[in-house]
Amino acid sequence: MKVKIVEVGPRDGLQNEKDILPSAVKAALINKLAEAGLQTIEASSFVNPRWIPQLADADEVLSTINRAQGVTYTALVPNLRGLERARACGLNEIALFMSASQTHNLKNINKTLEETYPILREVALEALALGMRVRGYVSTVFGCPYEGKVPLDNSRRVTEALLEMGAYEISLGDTIGVATPKQVHDLFRELVKDAPVQRLAGHFHDTRGTGLANVVAAMDVGIRTFDSSIGGLGGCPYAPGAAGNISTEDLIYMLHGMEYETGVDLQKLLEAGAFIQKQLGRDLNSKVLKAHLAAECLAAKDE
C-alpha cells in the first residue's frame, strides 16, 4: 500500500530559519529532494517578503531548480498577486492557507476567518480557471497558541469551505504540536464523515514528541497523505515555541518498516538532510539523520 509524502521543508522549514540561505542552496536542496524520489515538493512561498523575508527569493529559486519529470512543485499563495507570481514561475499547483482559530488567523494573515474566505475563493477560482491545482491548509486544528483548544466544528467549517472552493486536498495541521494519537484519531474519524478520506491529509509538528504516533493514528482512519520536512525543519513564526514538522527521514524510515510504499530512496534522502544541515551549520532534529551521520562518523574512524 502506498503513502504519499508532501515535502514542505523548503517552504515551511526554511521560512523559520534565522539565517537566510542563498537561493542557490535552496535550489540545490529542492533538486536533492526530487532526486530522492519525493514527488510533491512545496518549494517556496509568495507571501509578501516583508512578512517572510527568508523566502523573498521565491521567483529566483523556482526559476533555477531542475524540473524533474513527474515531480509536482508547489508554493504557498495568499492572494491574486501571489498567484500571478506563481503562474509566471511555471507552477501548476498552489497552496492556500488559513487557520481554524480566529486569533491565529488574525496573527498569521491579519484578517478574520470571515474576511479570509472571499480572498481565498477569488484566488482558487482564478487558479482553477488557469488550469492549476489547488491544495488547502488548515492550521491550529488541534490547538491554538492563543485560544487553546479549538472546537472540531471550526476545522469542519474551514475544511468544507476550502473543498467548496475547489481544493483537491486539505492538509489539517497540528501547528503547535499539541495533538495526541487519540485526539488525531477522533478528529479524522469525524471529518471523514463529511469529506472523502482521499481528500484529507495530516500535517504534524513534533513539539511534544507525538508526531509519528499521530501519523499512525491518522492512518488507522484511512489517511494516506502526510506533510513532512527534511531534517525536521520548521516551526511557526506565529506560534511561539512550536518545534519543526515531523522529519521526512524519520517518517520514511517508519513507513518502510511498516511495509508501506513511498517511492522515496531513504539513502538519497539522508544525503539531502546532511546537505541542508551542513548549510545551516547546526544539528537538525531528525533522529534517523542523527543515527546515520553518527554511524558514518564511526565508520570513518575505523578506517
Could you explain the architecture of this structure?
With 303 residues, the protein is of the alpha/beta class. It has a single domain (4-302), classed as Alpha-Beta Barrel (TIM Barrel). It is 45% helix and 15% strand. The protein contains twelve helices and eight strands. The protein has helices at 9-13, 23-35, 58-64, 80-88, 102-109, 113-129, 152-165, 181-191, 211-220, 248-257, 266-280, 287-302; strands at 4-7, 40-45, 72-76, 93-99, 133-139, 169-174, 200-204, 225-228. Strand 6, helix 8 (181-191) and strand 7 (200-204) form a beta-alpha-beta unit. Helix 2 (23-35) crosses helix 3, helix 8 runs parallel beside helix 9 (211-220) and helix 10 (248-257) runs antiparallel to helix 11 (266-280). The longest helix has 17 residues, at 113-129. The relative contact order is 0.15. Residues 3-270 form the Pyruvate carboxyltransferase domain. Belongs to the HMG-CoA lyase family. Keywords: Lyase, Metal-binding.
Layout: helices, strands, pairs:
Elements: E1 4-7, H1 9-13, H2 23-35, E2 40-45, H3 58-64, E3 72-76, H4 80-88, E4 93-99, H5 102-109, H6 113-129, E5 133-139, H7 152-165, E6 169-174, H8 181-191, E7 200-204, H9 211-220, E8 225-228, H10 248-257, H11 266-280, H12 287-302
